[in-house]
Amino acid sequence: MVLNPNYIGAVQNSDELRTYNRVLDKADTIFAVNYFLGYFSNSGKAVDLIKAQKIIDLKEKNLWDNYHIPFKNDEVIQARDFGVNVYFAGFPKQGKGKRKQKDYVKLLDLTTSHIPYGGFRCTDFVLTLSRTHTTIKFIKEAQDIPTDEFVLGFIRLDSGVLSNKSLCQYLGIDKLSPDFINAHILNSKITVPSQPFGRRIRGGKLVALVAQSNELRDFFNEQFKTNIVLFYTMSLYGSTKKSSMYDQLDRHIKFIGTTESRHPLRMKNPQKSNLINWLDQRGISRSNFIKGSSSQEDKLFKNLIHFLDNCLLVNRADPTVNKLRQQFKAEVKRIGERIERKRVYVGTYGLDHWDDNLINSGRVVNEDNNLEALFSYWKRKVYQQKDWGMRKNKHYLTSNKLYSYELLNEQFRDPSFNHVR
Question: What average pLDDT does the chain have?
Fold first, then answer.
């Protein structure tokens, strides 16, 4: 685009008391605000925006068309005579960049409606079905996931816990420090079953149980010299989904409340970076939008909204800008109403109190939280007791119907598909 050097000088918004060294002129304000409005205008509900964002992400990663599944597919899961392998898959990096992604990451991208990122201490695990044993085995050595095994689910653990009221109240701590979080709390950033394994026989509950197992905690402790005492996670889309796969797992994972703050659905890449780069070319520095905080993306989005509102205020004498300003305010209000209040869950690794291994001189281990015990518990609940709603799904337990990966690049082409997972 052609650079426009005609800018109005520093202007202060008396409401927010924030000063910008430069603001956009009328023409650029109209363009930028329309760009912003165009991003949100076609999504009436939160799930519509999530879907639109995910489709763009898959296209950017070349996963929308002509994807070939490298892993075993069309599996039969009949009766309970199968085992599970849990593979340590590596440490994913932050952002997308140009780096080549591993095959399991591509399958994860096509399985979850969430856009997964790496980051500080991110540690990946992949669950696969085994025909060579009927128990559960943890393979600690880093390796490529075998392509002759059917993928059952994905786990990504890290130290990226956001302090919230529910968590602080549960712990009895007014404010969680980063040092305490990094040393003692393990966050399950991604806990995703492949589909239809998750839907048919409650595979998501198995993946969740594995995520909070003693073995994965101990592995994380070994890697990062931590003393993890609390497992923490949040439901992916708290107010979009009516239920969570963590529900009815109180024996191991407990619901402690919802996040106090509301989570607005933000503009995401590539549109977000395109707009910020466009502004930067016009002398509006990126530093106006990127701040150092525990929730940098939320901060950036709020600053972007404030800046555009400021430009509209400065240029409001123009009739077109003034009309656009009213539309912008209405849309920002609508965005604020499309929020996600997420559910918060914790696990104490089978111990009575979360701080048992924080204050005791000797380490306490509940073997009921070991992988083998957890796998037996899941099998018993699904196949024997038919709990977790399995009575209505019991036909799947003896069916020879194939388990074929249900991928979002195919499902999103159906206009009626509106699920998040």
Answer: 85
